[in-house]
Amino acid sequence: MTRETIRTDRAPQAIGTYSQAVRVGRTLYLSGQIPLDPQTMTLVTGDIVDQVRRAFDNLQAVAEAAGGTLGDLVKLNVFLTDLDHFQVVNQVMAEYFTEPYPARAVIGVAALPRGAAIELDGILDLAD
């Protein structure tokens, strides 16, 4: 099987030695997205709702660059530096997803890149 690297200017460029996403067959592996503005590469300012939306917008942009949508997401991982934001994630997710929802894990972490409060990654099942 061949690997296809996915890249879009609609999401932040990689800030390390990784790709925004990699497609292998029908499976798309999305790298973590934090709430960076793709134009300025700075963290979104504002409340946690704005940060969560930006992270989902970034994830969505990479999925679309591969020919998919967030509706193709089968597994979502959410990393939070403050688990008190769990309900905000649920509220914002309802803006991006309808049933059937993806499988999901929410993990509390001590820190994230660039001091972000949230990071998202996931796996999509794409049609050939």
Number of strands: 6
Query: Can you tell me the CATH architecture?
Result: 2-Layer Sandwich
Q: Give the SSE order as H and E letters.
A: EEEHEHEE
The helicity comes to: 10-25%
Strand order of the largest sheet: 1-2-3-6-4-5
- CATH class category label: Alpha Beta
Quaternary organization: single chain
Structural class: alpha+beta
What's the alpha carbon Rg, rounded to whole Å?
14 Å
Approximately how much beta-strand content do the residues carry?
25-35%
How many individual domains? 1
Low-confidence stretches: none
Largest sheet descriptor: 6 strands, mixed
**Principal-axes shape call:** globular
Could you give the distance between the termini?
A: 13 Å
Mean pLDDT score: 96
The CATH fourth-level homologous superfamily: RutC-like
